[in-house]
Amino acid sequence: MNLPVYLDNNATTPMDPEVLETMLPYFMQKFGNAASKNHSFGWIAEEAVDHARKQIAALINAQETELVFTSGATEAVNLAIKGVYEMYKGKGNHIITCVTEHKAVLDTCKHLEQSGGNITYLPVDEDGLIIPEELEKAITPQTILIAIMYANNETGVIQPIKEIAKIAKKNDLLFFCDATQAVGKVPVDVLSDGIHLMACSAHKLYGPKGVGILYVRRKNPRVKITAQIDGGGHERGMRSGTLNVPGIVGLGKAAELCSQKSDSETLRITFLRDKLERALLQIEATFVNGSRTSRLPGVLNISFQHVNGQALMMALKNIAVSSGSACTSASLEPSYVLKSLGLSDDLAHSAIRLGIGRFNTEEEIDYTIEQMTKAVNHLRAISPLWQMYKDENELNKV
Ligand SMILES: *Cc1c(COP(=O)(O)O)cnc(C)c1O
What we know:
Elements: E1 5-6, H1 17-23, H2 40-60, E2 67-70, H3 73-88, E3 94-98, H4 103-114, E4 118-122, H5 132-138, E5 143-147, H6 161-170, E6 174-178, H7 190-193, E7 197-201, E8 212-216, H8 245-280, E9 286-288, E10 299-304, H9 309-315, E11 319-320, H10 336-340, H11 345-349, E12 351-355, H12 362-381, H13 384-397
The structure holds pyridoxal-5'-phosphate.
Pyridoxal-5'-phosphate binds near residues 72, 102, 104, 204 and 212.
């Protein structure tokens, strides 16, 4: 077993070696610009990009012409929300999203609020799920877009996507879905899921960093968006800029591998997550955060009462995990996602996110169980708060 153990696959995934191998020729021998129409260097690059489009389209059941390559999910989210807002603002200025969205969505919505946008942030229940009736109630004649994520990056909680899509369709609204955590992990099908725009990113599915896609529906309905980057008219005018050919080739290969591996990989990763969860729940006063049923296979977000998550992380020198979200763990604020589920500051501060991926082994999970159990017991043994909690419990029993 190699140390440290990487259990932060929701922050980013290691690249699959097959992905790297597929990318390598496109840095040197096949370096052409996919927009060069006059020679074989360009044609070879364009062919590779077209092949990647096929591989990605197959994974999410889209048409190749419905994919716009971007620099990642953050850019795709910006393009979707700002692009729809600018295109449809004649119809209305109201967007409905949710409090547990990724910062890419929340900050984009905040930006639009500065320029006249009206945003509703739906709450979630204690499982982290939106309540479809609340969504329906929030719709006004000014509403143009619903922006709800597929699966949450901190808890792995999967939203009721088909129900949301039904409400969007009934009310003639567009439905944008940040599916960055879901694509490649659970079956995502833009047609049967009823999604009109969707963002995802290569580095969350064993591909390279710095490349992603925005899916933009072309039929039923035909979605139009205003470009956010001008110059050259690449990607049918929706995203100008020379294509990142090696990155796109890598994303394509990563998508193909996910299509091939999905069923067996899901079973294996679910087995490992459930083993880890069962063992950690043996520790006293320990709680799983978010729904345990509507959840991604590899994610476990867990709170150990009266154990500071940051301290626990430091104690686990040989295990890479995350306390709260990777994007906010630089700050000492408790995770806004966990707070939205109704957790106290204390329990939110005591949360650890474990993300299991393709390259984790059962041996690593066994090691993690052993090390975490030891660390939690040690931190509690030296914690006055824990002693008080124990004493109170004893008193209550008498
Ligand atoms: C990682 C992530 C993003 C950002 O993706 P990048 O490609 O790193 O910009 C957006 N949304 C969710 C849910 C994510 O997990």
